[in-house]
TrEMBL record, chain A:
Matches recorded under InterPro entries: ABC_transp_permease
A molecular function (GO) term: transmembrane transporter activity
Protein's organism: Pelagimonas phthalicica
Protein name as it appears in the record: L-arabinose transporter permease protein
Key word Cell membrane present: yes
Domain of life of the organism encoding this protein: Bacteria
Compartments where found: Cell membrane
Gene Ontology annotations for the cellular component aspect, listed alphabetically: plasma membrane
From TrEMBL, chain B:
Name of this chain's protein: Branched-chain amino acid transport system / permease component
Record has Phosphoprotein as a keyword: no
Annotated localization: Cell membrane
GO CC term (a single one): plasma membrane
Membrane association type: Multi-pass membrane protein
Length: 321, 364
């Protein structure tokens, strides 16, 4: 295996990690504020459809991105209404929203475009373009560093760079701002936040909204950057992998980056190599596909350090008991 | 004092929720330029007006009874088992192994053997998440979701690398031998000059589903175990104080839940396809969530909700055939039912409670 192949696999890992990372950070905001969200998958899916549909019809990919974020926010609003305002079951609400997105996207896509529940292919120039970083071409011939910089780090779409920049930003917001402190507090001890005169409901809606925006970007990345349009069920369980990554990372931003890169790498390897032969032993592709889920169960089981969720997670806040 | 009578909470709240879901579904149909009344009559026509349509409706309902009961038993112990899909897949694997590798003399014996194995396989797949929840505190919702994906990969591997007949490219087993084929409603109810349920997949498994309803009723409300299960679901601390072991109840409840989900495979794999295919469950594990919520986790409610969803499934298929409405409409309806009955139930309950309080004040 030479450097070129390694670079290719790593490059594809970054592409596959990007939507996971965005969704994972989205879940991080929501769950840190005490709102469980298994609807990441649905929000990404509906955003993927909306962004592809609007990018195709208007010819402007940024309008597509906005539409995607809008659609994702609409689902967030329902989730907020159900789990914050009406103190419903957050898990059930998430499940319902996943189905809602799965059904509505195909229903509307079929109604608008009549192509069997998909959008038409978006032409190259109407999608997010790959950005070539400065000096990428000039440095290509430098040994080792050249290919890494110009093929691996350079040449991704704007959304991918946004995703990776979101990691330090999330860390800064959560751990270095007043808003972040309150947001984390509301996920651990909402009554304390309430006693301090800060609105629990407001903070939780802010968190759920942030989650919606990030899932929206993730969906737009899938449909207008990674692929050229929306196809039925195109998120293919990425929302659940992101959820797995979030647990794997124990609800911390930098670890989320590592977990998403790892899971993206597993996907890339499974895509490229199918069955991997190690001497006499063959690792089947199905094992590679299942590995993120298996790893998450192992982490959840607490055999490799314990994953402890925010304390008030999943509990609706009732002002007076 | 309760804010409203028990019958209102048990009947009125779900009914209004379902009505809301239906109203929004009608709006969705309107917005894609079709007539909701027309759509509804096509669904009734396709699902209920012929014995063939009813046969399909009952076939789907059979699946949903099993998965609905599975979710409900876990609900009673206050656990949310999203893993019905995976448990049914593994149950199907058990059914396939039993049908392919044991030379059964008669279908009734084969059905008996397959029932035991399907339940055992489904329960086994639920055991690990249950164990992790009970002993390590890993959240059952997340682990069962993960186990759905793992089950799919495992089944895919076993089908492609072990059970697929040589020369076939389809990830599916060979056809089961003749002796394991279950009697369909057509063979049971047709007379010489009057063919009933022509080509419909409803089969003898439907009666096993009805038996399962009775069994779950007896278990939950007429046995000591059921009492322990419900008390654990109501209040864990009170249950512990009464000497009920949380570890035991968690694991037993999930084993029963997984076993019921596994039984679904009897209907799809042994009754209909007569071989194991990769996508045998077709999301029925998830519909069980909607069915259990709508049926308020009571076997009678679940039976009715499963029949309704069976109707929706068969009707939706007909709808896709005759109009431009794709079958995904059913997924939207399913989502709305789950949303309104499971997550937004307080939106319905709060105003109702106010109304009942006002009525009482009027009386006093």
């Amino acid at each position: 295996m030479d450097l070129a192949v390694i670079i290719q696999v790593l490059d594809s890992s970054i592409r596959l990690s990007t939507p996971l990372l965005l969704a994972c950070l989205a879940g991080l905001f929501s769950e840190r504020a005490g709102i469980f969200d298994i609807g990441l998958e649905g929000k990404m899916l509906i955003s993927a459809f909306a962004s592809a549909a609007f990018a195709f019809t208007t010819g402007n990919v940024w309008i597509g991105l906005m539409a995607g974020i809008g659609a994702s926010l609409a689902l967030s609003a329902i989730h907020g209404l159900a789990s914050i305002t009406f103190r419903g079951n957050q898990l059930i609400s998430g499940v319902a929203l996943n189905f809602l997105a799965s059904g509505l996207t195909v229903l509307i896509a079929q109604n608008w475009f009549k192509q069997g529940g998909r959008t038409p292919t978006i032409p190259e120039e109407q999608r997010f373009q790959d950005i070539t970083l400065p000096f990428a071409d000039a440095l290509r011939d430098v040994p080792v560093f050249g290919p890494i910089y110009s093929d691996l780090i350079s040449g991704h779409s704007a959304l991918a760079y946004i995703a990776f920049l979101m990691v330090p930003l999330t860390w800064w917001v959560l751990f270095r701002t007043r808003f972040g402190l309150r947001l984390r507090a509301v996920g651990e001890a909402p009554d304390a936040v309430d006693t301090a005169g800060v609105s629990v409901i407001g903070l939780r809606f802010a968190a759920v909204g942030t989650c919606g925006v990030l899932c929206g970007i993730a969906g737009a990345y899938l449909a207008t950057s990674l692929q050229a349009g929306f196809v039925k069920e195109m998120t293919a369980g990425r929302g659940y992998i992101a959820l797995a990554a979030l647990i794997f990372a124990k609800w911390r931003p930098w670890y989320a980056l590592m977990a998403c890169l790892l899971f993206g790498f597993l996907q890339a390897v499974a895509l490229r190599f199918q069955n991997i032969r190690l001497g006499d032993f063959v690792i089947p592709v199905q094992l590679m596909e299942a590995l993120p889920y298996i790893l998450t169960v192992v982490i959840l089981a607490g055999f490799v350090g314990k994953a402890i969720p925010p304390r008030a997670g999943g509990e609706p806040y009732v002002k007076e008991r | 004092m309760d804010k409203m009578p028990a019958w209102a909470d048990a009947v009125l709240v779900p009914l209004i929720s379902v009505f809301l879901a239906a109203a929004i579904s009608a709006l969705v149909i309107l917005s894609i330029g079709e007539n909701p009344l027309n759509a509804f009559s096509i669904m009734v026509e396709g699902a209920l007006s012929s014995s063939r349509g009813i046969g399909y409706t009952l076939y789907y309902a059979t699946n949903f009874i099993f998965t609905g009961l599975a979710v409900a038993v876990a609900f009673h112990a206050r656990m949310f088992n999203i893993g019905g899909e995976g448990q049914a897949m593994i149950g199907g694997l058990g059914v396939a192994l039993v049908c392919l590798f044991i030379p059964w003399p008669h279908w009734s014996l084969a059905l008996l053997g397959a029932t035991v194995i399907a339940a055992l396989f489904g329960a086994a797949w639920a055991y690990i998440p249950a164990f992790l929840q009970a002993k390590r505190g890993s959240h059952i919702v997340i682990t069962t979701i993960m186990f759905n994906f793992i089950a799919f990969s495992l089944l895919n591997y076993v089908l492609v690398n072990m059970l697929k007949p040589q020369g076939s490219s389809d990830p599916a087993t060979a056809r089961f031998p003749e002796a394991t084929h279950l009697p369909t409603f057509q063979s049971m109810f047709s007379t010489a000059d009057n063919v009933m349920f022509r080509n419909a997949p409803a089969n003898v498994t439907f009666f096993i589903a009805l038996l399962a309803c009775v069994a779950v009723y007896l278990l939950i409300w007429r046995t000591r175990l059921g009492y322990e299960l419900r008390s654990f679901g109501q209040s864990e601390t009170a249950a512990v104080y009464a000497g009920i072991s949380p570890v035991k109840i968690t694991i037993v409840a999930m084993l029963i839940s997984g076993g019921l989900a596994g039984l679904m495979a009897l209907n799809t794999t042994m009754g209909e396809a007569e071989r194991l295919v990769l996508n045998a469950t077709e999301g029925a594990g998830f519909i069980g969530i909607a069915v259990a919520l709508m049926g308020r986790s009571h076997p009678v409610g679940i039976l009715l909700a499963a029949l309704l969803f069976g109707f929706l499934y068969q009707g939706g298929t007909e709808l896709a055939f005759w109009t431009s409405i794709p079958t995904q409409l059913i997924i939207v309806i399913q989502a709305l039912v789950i949303l309104f009955t499971g997550a937004l139930d307080n939106m319905v309950r709060m105003p109702l409670e106010k109304i009942f309080l006002n009525i009482r004040k009027g009386d006093a």
